[in-house]
């Protein structure tokens, strides 16, 4: 009984020395995930900079455990704001489309909270789409393709909610990101172009044709890009509003038709 906490404390000390901010929590997860030589290998890989979630194969997000895979974008806690906004905007029995879905974490969390809703998801990366299928209910459809293009045409004009955590890091800022992001997540999951909004603008422009008359498109943004997101919504013929969660320092924009 003494050995367990002592081992965990030693692992935490090694992780802390390597710069892991949540060393104690990570030590417990690693200790629960492996033992012996396998545990030592995971510790060494984490110290070398690999994301914890990739090492153990899952991430906690919005109260659920979602599978992750190498190279994919690891779900961030700040994206839970998108889940809350989408859940609130979805009418009874409505359909939610999660675009640039990655692991499908956002779609899975929405499906968990709104079992009455139909959830569909899409991602350009076949590996991401495959991972999303692991995380979503069997009833949810996951498509592979660019933004809204792979969705069934029958959904055009019939989506009350579109949610998208499209890449929004300006290209020049990727070099400034934490090592575990810039070295272990594919650039396509991070790079949003010169000002970070290239893909988001395309999402907003396409959303107009897919939303219902009262539909809402919800995108993640940042403090410094919030005004740009609002401008992008206006250019697409949408009326945006900024939502902010101080606890997670999360920024989002929800936009509806003018």
Report on this structure.
The protein is of the alpha/beta class. The protein has two domains: 3-67, Ubiquitin-associated (UBA) domain (Helicase, Ruva Protein, domain 3), CATH 1.10.8; 77-257, Rossmann fold. It contains ten helices and nine strands. A seven-stranded mixed β-sheet has the order 5-4-3-6-7-9-8, sandwiched between helices. The N and C termini lie far apart (63 Å).
Helical content, roughly? Answer: 25-40%
The proportion of residues in beta strands is 15-25%
Number of strands: 9
Q: What's the number of structural domains?
A: 2
- Counted by DSSP, the helix tally is 10
Global geometry: globular
> Mean pLDDT across all residues, rounded?
95
Entry summary:
With 258 residues, the chain is α/β, with parallel strands linked by helices.
Observed structural traits:
7-stranded mixed sheet; single chain; 258 residues; Helicase, Ruva Protein, domain 3; Rossmann fold; 2 domains; alpha/beta; 9 strands
List the helices and strands and how they pair.
Elements: H1 3-17, H2 23-33, H3 36-47, H4 52-56, E1 58-61, E2 64-67, H5 80-89, E3 95-99, H6 105-113, E4 118-123, H7 126-135, E5 141-144, E6 159-164, H8 179-182, H9 198-210, E7 211-221, H10 226-235, E8 238-245, E9 250-257
Parallel strand pairs: 3-4, 3-6, 4-5, 6-7
Antiparallel strand pairs: 1-2, 7-9, 8-9
Helix pairs in contact: 1-2, 5-6, 9-10
């Amino acid at each position: 009984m003494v050995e367990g906490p002592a081992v965990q404390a030693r692992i935490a000390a090694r992780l802390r020395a390597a710069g892991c901010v949540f060393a104690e929590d990570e030590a417990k997860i690693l200790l629960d995930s492996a033992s012996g030589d396998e545990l030592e290998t995971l510790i060494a890989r984490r110290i070398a900079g690999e994301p914890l979630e990739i090492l153990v194969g899952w991430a906690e997000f919005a109260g659920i455990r979602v599978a992750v895979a190498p190279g994919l974008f690891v779900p961030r806690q700040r994206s839970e704001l998108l889940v809350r906004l989408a859940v609130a905007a979805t009418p009874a029995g409505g359909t939610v489309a999660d675009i640039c879905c990655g692991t499908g974490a956002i779609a899975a969390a929405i499906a968990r909270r709104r079992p009455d809703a139909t959830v569909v998801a899409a991602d350009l990366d076949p590996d991401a789409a495959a991972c999303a299928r692991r995380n979503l209910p069997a009833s949810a459809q996951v498509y592979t393709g660019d933004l809204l293009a792979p969705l069934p045409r029958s959904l055009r004009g019939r989506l009350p909610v579109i949610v998208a955590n499209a890449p929004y890091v300006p290209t020049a800022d990727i070099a400034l990101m934490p090592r575990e992001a810039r070295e272990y997540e594919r650039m396509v999951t991070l790079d949003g172009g010169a000002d970070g909004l290239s893909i988001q603008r395309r999402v907003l422009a396409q959303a107009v044709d897919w939303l219902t008359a009262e539909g809402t498109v919800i995108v993640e943004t940042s403090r410094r890009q919030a005004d740009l997101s609002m401008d992008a919504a206006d250019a697409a013929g949408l009326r945006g509003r900024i939502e902010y969660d101080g606890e997670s320092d999360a920024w989002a924009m929800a936009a509806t038709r003018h």
